[in-house]
């Protein structure tokens, strides 16, 4: 029975995972834009000193990227678990036929 | 701190590294890999990205050009947060194809071309040599810094000697732990663990210095910000082109630097580790960069004019009298330098030995490869020599260049050189149209431009190019000046070289790829690489030119070592269902053997060696591809048809079974009423008859007592029947209250046997048990379980028709469940009845019907369902056999639903 406020949707979880994969692919693009942003702002032409502010900005972007990557990695963990084949020769260092 | 104690600290640290590496190797040998396979070790080992160039150089870089140094770490951050797109594929390819180095990847992708392997190897060696020199220089400089501060004023013997000692020590470590064995996939657990430890040391050291600078000298973060704004680097002279270009080149380098490829792809043991590294490695980089600007600012503020900003990390604590902190910083720098050199030497040595030395040796000895000779020994020796060679080249470069001042410049030059592999790498794994010719042209052009515009002008003080060439171009051709190609002057040299080299590299790669045709093997490899997620590794077909398994074994022994090779052949043979060591030389077997060999000597060499024995590879490759395409389609079609019809048959069978059972049940249900009335009526009739007789007035007392006894007996039978029926209905509705307690299974069986012995006590019944297996605690409703056992044992006593009846009780533990089998040696139960025996009132023969209503097994089944277990008839045991299976620990909840 569909709960009120939740649209009816089948395979909700795998749909969510595929969107998470999209997010994982887009995250570096977002990162590039944010990191190259100071180039538009051209700090050398502003009157105030910029190293402090710029540093804080870049580190903030950095931390945000790390947090986002952490969230995505957590979300994609089950996908990897399902895909990961046991390493050949984990027990038997000589390897087994694949 | 005297020179001797500094050396002692260094030595102690090095001995600790040896011990850690040694212990890790020992654990790996014992297959106790859990700790070694942690994603944290993997992430930490990636930190060899942060070399001494980061540890010392980043501060110097910041002191010279402000925040620009950050892009060197932001580039890799972008690559890692985008791991799903690129790194995952790279690692999957690396593991599927047993890639041993970046040169191996390129060579393997473009049709196992050894020429490409050689090109990439040479480029890597050339690009890495200055970088190794830089590490030696930084350690030497840090020794110097201590020497200059030392109160005793000890004079350092000789800078060259220090660097020589370091290079020698590193060569020893690398040879000891990097060339222990030709392990499949080239994994070095000892080295990786030691490097992970070094990663922690350098991070702690840099953060300790940073904390001291911000809170000890700078007065906290807020004051620190004010100091930054007041410092000479307050203004951020951002050059957009350089900013973007360096971000790009550092992102490229983290993929293509041989040492990064080694830890990222080759040493990866589990793809899932990437998920952790995707955020943890950027986090590591962020922490490494966090205090760089504050250290640079305080260094500029406090240190005398003209001090080398590259050494602020060390000299700042020294000048403040913080000897211990300075020592920690020294160890951090030492760690950064050594870990980079070790991994770079391993990666380069693997490449040199796999792509240059071994193929050369094979070519020289082409005629006599079948003769015994130890390739394994050769590869190991060539690898060891290569390590020594790589380190000596680094040392020579250091002596020749005389130790240039700015560390950062050398690092960037190496980065741009390494980035030349990028088009061939990305094109190779994302574009099936990329060809060998395109890759080779692109690499050569890119490499040539890099060497001409960036590398050669940087070597030594004046550069290897004459001053006149730099000023006015070769032969006076102005538009060919190294720093202003095509007359575009005024660009930053790094950006200039990066732009032109990668532009022409990528263009040549694309154009020549489009214009040329790939070879058959190349096409196969292209598909296997680009679609690595869609398929299992492509089985490369080998024309079976009558190669003998024995020849292959003798060759494999020389590469893998006798024990490993024999084990591999043996497992392959037994997989084919054969005895002994020699499997049939089928294509899949040869392909597997080739992959196995590739893990040790690289794809190209492995391919060449197999080709020699099997008598040529590409003979019928094109035909094979065409045939394979058609057959694959047909096979797929018939496979789906087959699967579908199988599915249908399965469903039909299940339906038929269910239908039969339903019909039987309906018959049973019909007879249920008549049976139950019959069952109730029989005792009722006798009770009525005898009670009527009892009503006669003049009955002898003896008869009266006898008749009363019969009435009582019949009433009891009636009660028992009704009890059973009630019990069954309660059990069926799962309404039963379980009384869970713990009991030894052995005691339980004893109890059951004792209780059941009253059934047909006149028969001599032999019970076979295995006491030791029976001793185990069981958490369950013991009374109910015993009821099941009694029922089964009584049934056996009752119905076993053997002359010498034997009941065997076997107890087996299966994970968290226990199975108890009751097997007798009677005639067993006919097949058509096996399904019915657990139904109500199911009685098979009439001979023993006295005293039984046919409810026993039905009750047993319901009890077992309530206990969370099952009871089944076990056919084919040479008698009636019942298997009771139940969990060792029944939960306390009531009922099974």
From TrEMBL, chain A:
Superkingdom as given in the UniProt entry: Bacteria
Spans traversing the lipid bilayer: 20-42, 54-73
Keywords, alphabetical: Membrane, Transmembrane, Transmembrane helix
Stated name of the protein: Uncharacterized protein
Biological source species: Thioclava dalianensis
UniProtKB/TrEMBL annotation, chain B:
Record-annotated membrane-spanning stretches: 6-24, 40-63, 69-87, 115-134, 160-179, 191-215, 279-300, 340-364, 385-400, 406-430, 437-455, 494-515
Record's bilayer topology term: Multi-pass membrane protein
Xref: CDD domains: HATPase, HisKA, SLC5sbd
SUPFAM superfamilies cross-referenced by the UniProt entry: ATPase domain of HSP90 chaperone/DNA topoisomerase II/histidine kinase, Homodimeric domain of signal transducing histidine kinase
Pfam entry (one): HATPase_c
Enzyme Commission identifier(s): 2.7.13.3
Molecular function GO terms recorded: phosphorelay sensor kinase activity; transmembrane transporter activity
One term under GO cellular component: membrane
InterPro entries per the UniProt record, alphabetical: HATPase_C_sf, HATPase_dom, His_kinase_dom, HisK_dim/P_dom, HisK_dim/P_sf, Na/Glc_symporter_sf, Na/solute_symporter, Sensor_HK_Regulatory
Domain Histidine kinase: 675-890
Enzyme class name: transferase
UniProt keyword terms in alphabetical order: Coiled coil, Kinase, Membrane, Phosphoprotein, Transferase, Transmembrane, Transmembrane helix, Two-component regulatory system
Major localisation: membrane
Catalytic activity: ATP + protein L-histidine = ADP + protein N-phospho-L-histidine
Protein family according to the UniProt entry: Belongs to the sodium:solute symporter (SSF) (TC 2.A.21) family.
Protein name: histidine kinase
């Amino acid at each position: 029975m569909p709960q009120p406020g939740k649209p009816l949707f089948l395979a909700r979880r795998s749909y969510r995972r595929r969107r998470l994969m999209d997010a994982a692919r887009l995250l570096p693009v977002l990162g590039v834009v944010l990191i190259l942003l100071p180039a538009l702002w051209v700090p050398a032409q502003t009157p105030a000193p910029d190293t402090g502010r710029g540093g804080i900005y870049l580190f903030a972007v950095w931390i945000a990227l790390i947090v986002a990557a952490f969230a995505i990695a957590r979300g994609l963990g089950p996908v990897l678990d399902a895909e990961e084949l046991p390493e050949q020769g984990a027990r038997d260092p000589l390897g087994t036929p694949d | 701190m005297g020179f001797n104690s500094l050396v002692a600290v260094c030595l102690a640290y090095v001995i600790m590294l040896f011990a850690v590496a040694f212990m890790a190797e020992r654990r790996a040998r014992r297959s106790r890999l859990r700790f070694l396979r942690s994603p944290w070790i993997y992430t930490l080992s990636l930190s060899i990205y942060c070399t001494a160039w980061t540890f010392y150089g980043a501060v110097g870089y910041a002191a010279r050009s402000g925040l620009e140094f950050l892009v060197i770490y932001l580039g890799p951050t972008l690559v890692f947060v985008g791991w799903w797109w690129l790194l995952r594929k790279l690692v999957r390819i690396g593991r599927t194809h047993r890639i041993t180095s970046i040169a191996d990847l390129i060579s393997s992708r473009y049709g196992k071309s050894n020429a490409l392997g050689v090109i990439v190897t040479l480029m890597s060696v050339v690009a890495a040599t200055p970088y190794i020199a830089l590490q030696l220089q930084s350690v030497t400089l840090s020794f110097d810094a201590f020497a200059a501060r030392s109160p005793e004023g000890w004079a350092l013997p000789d800078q060259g000697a220090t660097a020589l000692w370091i290079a020698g020590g590193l060569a020893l470590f690398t040879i000891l732990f990097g060339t222990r064995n030709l392990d499949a996939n080239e994994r070095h657990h000892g080295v990786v663990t030691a490097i992970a430890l070094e990663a922690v040391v350098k991070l702690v050291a840099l953060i300790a210095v940073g904390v001291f600078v911000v809170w000890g000298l700078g007065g906290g973060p807020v004051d620190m910000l004010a100091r930054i704004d007041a410092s000479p680097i307050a203004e951020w002279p951002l050059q957009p082109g350089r900013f973007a270009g360096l971000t790009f080149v550092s992102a490229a380098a983290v993929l293509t630097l041989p040492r990064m490829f080694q830890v990222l792809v080759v040493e990866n043991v589990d793809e899932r580790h990437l998920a952790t590294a995707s955020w943890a490695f950027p986090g590591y980089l962020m922490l490494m960069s966090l205090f760089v600007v504050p250290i640079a600012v305080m260094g500029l503020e406090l240190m005398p004019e003209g001090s080398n900003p590259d050494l602020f990390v060390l000299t700042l604590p020294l000048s403040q009298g913080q000897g211990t902190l300075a020592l920690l910083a020294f160890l951090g720098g030492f760690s950064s330098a050594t870990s980079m050199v070790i991994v770079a030497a391993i990666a380069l040595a693997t490449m040199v030995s796999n792509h240059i030395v071994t193929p050369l040796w094979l070519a020289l000895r082409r005629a006599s490869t079948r003769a015994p000779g130890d390739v394994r020994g050769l590869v190991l020796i060539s690898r060891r020599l290569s390590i020594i060679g790589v380190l000596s080249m680094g040392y020579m470069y250091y002596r020749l260049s005389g130790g240039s001042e700015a560390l950062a410049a050398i690092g960037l030059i190496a980065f741009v050189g390494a980035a030349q592999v990028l088009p061939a790498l990305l094109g190779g794994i994302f574009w099936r149209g990329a060809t060998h010719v395109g890759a080779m042209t692109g690499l050569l052009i890119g490499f040539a431009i890099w060497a001409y515009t960036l590398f050669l002008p940087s070597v030594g003080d004046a550069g290897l190019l004459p001053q006149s060439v730099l000023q006015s171009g070769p032969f006076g051709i102005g538009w060919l000046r190294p720093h202003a190609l095509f007359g575009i002057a005024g660009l930053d040299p790094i950006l200039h070289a990066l732009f032109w080299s990668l532009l022409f590299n990528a263009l040549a790669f694309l154009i020549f790829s489009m214009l040329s045709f790939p070879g058959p093997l190349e096409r196969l490899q292209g598909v296997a690489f680009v679609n690595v997620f869609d398929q299992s590794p492509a089985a490369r077909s080998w024309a079976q030119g009558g190669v003998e398994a024995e020849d292959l074994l003798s060759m494999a022994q020389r590469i893998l070592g006798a024990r490993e090779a024999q084990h591999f052949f043996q497992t392959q043979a037994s997989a084919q269902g054969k005895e002994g060591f020699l499997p049939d030389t089928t294509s899949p077997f040869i392909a597997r053997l080739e992959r196995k060999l590739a893990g040790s000597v690289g794809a190209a060499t492995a391919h060449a060696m197999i080709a020699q024995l099997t008598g040529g590879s590409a003979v019928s490759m094109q035909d094979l591809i065409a045939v394979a395409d058609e057959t694959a389609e047909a096979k797929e079609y018939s496979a789906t048809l087959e699967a579908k019809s199988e599915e249908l048959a399965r469903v039909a069978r299940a339906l038929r079974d269910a239908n039969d059972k339903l019909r039987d049940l309906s018959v049973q249900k019909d007879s249920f009423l008549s049976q139950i009335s019959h069952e109730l009526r029989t005792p009722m009739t006798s009770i009525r008859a005898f009670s009527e007789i009892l009503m006669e007035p003049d009955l002898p007392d003896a008869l009266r007592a006898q008749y009363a006894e019969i009435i009582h007996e019949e009433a009891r039978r009636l009660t028992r029947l009704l009890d059973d029926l009630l019990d069954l209905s309660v059990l069926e509705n799962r309404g039963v209250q379980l009384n869970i307690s713990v009991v030894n299974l052995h005691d339980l069986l004893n109890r059951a046997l004792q209780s059941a012995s009253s059934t047909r006590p006149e028969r001599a019944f032999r019970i076979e048990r295995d006491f030791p297996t029976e001793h185990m605690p069981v958490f369950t409703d013991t009374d109910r379980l015993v009821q099941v056992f009694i029922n089964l044992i009584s049934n056996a006593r009752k119905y076993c028709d053997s002359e010498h009846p034997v009941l065997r009780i076997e107890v087996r533990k299966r994970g968290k469940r226990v199975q108890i089998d009751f097997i007798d040696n009677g005639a067993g139960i006919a097949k058509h009845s096996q399904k019915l025996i657990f139904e109500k009132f199911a009685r098979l023969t009439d001979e023993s019907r006295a005293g039984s209503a046919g409810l026993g097994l039905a009750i047993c089944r319901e009890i077992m369902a309530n206990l969370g277990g099952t009871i089944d008839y076990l056919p084919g045991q040479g008698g009636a056999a019942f298997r009771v299976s139940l969990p060792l620990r029944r939960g306390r909840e009531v009922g099974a639903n």
